[in-house]
């Protein structure tokens, strides 16, 4: 793969890479490297970096744009914007799947259209831009390729509550549903307080307190979203 093959992508994101090898690494899926036994690093570390940079950029953007929102509101909206389905949409818009190096099995299994794989590739691209160009360039890419998909939601807030968002994200990531458990109840019957914890794959991800089980679950879901996004 050479720089010319990336011309359309680079034009769409408005970036000129100083080191094209970093860009090329974005598209090396682990399955391909395992199959051809090449001594090249996969895109997984770039994905890890891109995930963190994405969270920072979206957090700052929402903090600046939605000044009246509480921490819980901001967390819920951020989770909605950076979930797998959202990132896969941005990846499809850039046609990132067409650049991927995949194993034969991954290719035959529809890897180029796999939402999780596409979302991971988008994060790897952001990681590569950060390494090569810095944070300001990452902001440019996100503002061009991701935020326009969610103008309505960013203006009016996410269409779902925290529990619904958490349910969708956990099913995307882990193929299971989060589990809620009442840890403690306090107070008389007319003024009870519920302490609820939410678990994912047996691990506690958040706690919430409320005058009803539903309110406590919503708070625990918000805390879990903060950890996951």
TrEMBL record:
Source organism of this protein record: Candidatus Daviesbacteria bacterium RIFCSPLOWO2_02_FULL_36_8
Domain annotation DRBM: ranges: 161-229
Protein name: Ribonuclease 3
Catalytic activity: Endonucleolytic cleavage to 5'-phosphomonoester
Binding residue positions for Mg(2+): 47, 120, 123
Cofactor or coenzyme needed: Mg(2+)
Keyword tRNA-binding: no
GO CC, one annotated term: cytoplasm
GO molecular function: double-stranded RNA binding; identical protein binding; metal ion binding; ribonuclease III activity; rRNA binding
Entry annotated with the keyword Membrane: no
């Amino acid at each position: 793969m050479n720089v010319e093959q990336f011309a359309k992508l680079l034009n769409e994101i408005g970036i000129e890479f100083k080191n094209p090898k970093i860009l090329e690494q974005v598209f090396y899926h682990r399955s391909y490297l395992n199959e051809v036994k090449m001594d090249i690093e996969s895109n997984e570390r770039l994905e890890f970096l891109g995930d963190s940079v994405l969270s920072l950029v979206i957090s700052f953007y929402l903090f600046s744009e939605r000044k009246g929102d509480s921490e819980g509101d901001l967390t819920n909206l951020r989770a909605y914007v950076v979930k797998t389905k959202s990132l896969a949409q941005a990846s499809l818009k850039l046609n990132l799947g067409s650049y991927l190096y995949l194993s034969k099995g991954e290719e035959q299994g529809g890897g180029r259209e796999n939402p999780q794989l596409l979302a991971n590739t988008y994060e790897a691209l952001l990681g590569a831009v950060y390494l090569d160009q810095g944070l300001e360039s990452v902001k440019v890419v996100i503002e061009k390729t991701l935020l326009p998909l969610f103008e309505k939601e960013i203006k009016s807030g996410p269409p779902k509550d925290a529990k619904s968002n958490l349910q969708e994200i956990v099913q995307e990531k882990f193929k299971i549903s989060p589990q809620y458990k009442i840890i403690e109840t306090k107070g008389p019957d007319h003024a009870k307080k519920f302490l609820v914890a939410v678990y994912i794959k047996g691990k506690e991800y958040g706690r919430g307190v409320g005058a009803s089980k539903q309110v406590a679950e919503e708070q625990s879901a918000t805390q879990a979203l903060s950890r996951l996004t």
